[in-house]
Amino acid sequence: MLKWILVGLVLTGCSGAADYKGVLSNGMDEQGLEGIRLLAKSSPPSPDMTCQVRETKTGPGGAFTFTDLCHKQTYIMSVPQPNLQLSGGTVIEGAEQLEPTKHEAWWSPDGSGVYLLEGDSVKPVPTFSDVEVDETVAGTKIRYPSMKPTGKVITIDAGKYLVISGKKMVKRLEFFPLVADTARRRLKSGWITDHVFIGHEFASGTNGAPVKAEMDAAKVTEVLIRNEGVRYIAHDALPAGRYALLGNDDERVTILDFGSSQASAK
Predict the structure, then answer these.
(1) Sequence-distant (≥ 6) Cβ neighbours of residue 134 within 8 angstroms
(2) 204: alpha, beta or left, given left = phi > 0 and alpha = psi -120 to 50?
């Protein structure tokens, strides 16, 4: 099941300067994040310069404390570290707490696009080639990359996640099996031999049928960060194989291996 996570917290009732205690964990595995710098900025900005910003760092298990928050002043907590985002804006205020408040952060890109997440490393994933659009002689629309991948491509294997960031990207991009076909096929534009096709498998010399990527929704996590959707796709969310990632009208395609590399052994 796809999971949307939104954390928003407002604490009030402070009658004087006080501390705020919390625990910061990794949203992906719920492990405490140690050594993470946190900022709390007054909101609205306080006219008192001594009340505007507080800073702290997480300790063992992700525990942290903002000390001496100003009387009746609210603060917005943030993580200034690149590629680490809180899952929802967090407004805090010094107040009496029965126990530290739990917060989640996610390793995620700062902008929209497709990325590879491994540990705390977030790297952009480039597109592979242009997309050619044609028809079979029987009139079925067919797409294929202009270049055939002949070696290794980016692989989402154990411990890695494909990250799709941005509402428009999450909505637009779709996975299709990239089907290898060694035969010589006749298309309306001419003949093509030993190539790969996007979500299409030939069952005869002239036509074929579309094939779909069967994704396990339980292996996909969706989070709302800065009002933008971020989708995390585990290495086993799709059956092991090679896939094309693109939208219906995209002119470029990203090619990925899930589970393990599908490159032919040399």
Answers:
(1) 141, 142, 143, 144, 187, 188, 189
(2) beta
Of the pLDDT bands very low, low, confident and very high (cuts 50, 70, 90), residue 16 is low
Please compute Rg for the chain using Cα positions. 24
Tokens of 22: 């919390």
Listed in order, the ranges of the chain carrying CATH 2.60.40.10 are 4-107
> What 3-state DSSP class applies to 110?
coil
Rounded to the nearest 10°, the torsion over CA 214, 4, 255, 182 is 0
d(CA 55, CA 8): 20
Please count the residues of the chain. 266
Rounded to whole angstroms, the Cα distance separating 38 from 18 reads 17
Write down the CATH superfamily of domain 4-107. Immunoglobulins (2.60.40.10)
Q: What is the pLDDT of residues 24-50, one digit of tens each?
A: 999 998 999 999 999 999 988 888 888
CA atoms 251, 255, 258, 264: torsion sign: positive
The token duo for 168 is 């428009």
| C-alpha distances in Å from residue 83, one per residue of 55, 56, 67 | 19, 19, 26
From CA 74, how far away is CA 153, in angstroms rounded?
A: 48
**Letter for the amino acid at 210?**
P
State both tokens at 144: 């294929």
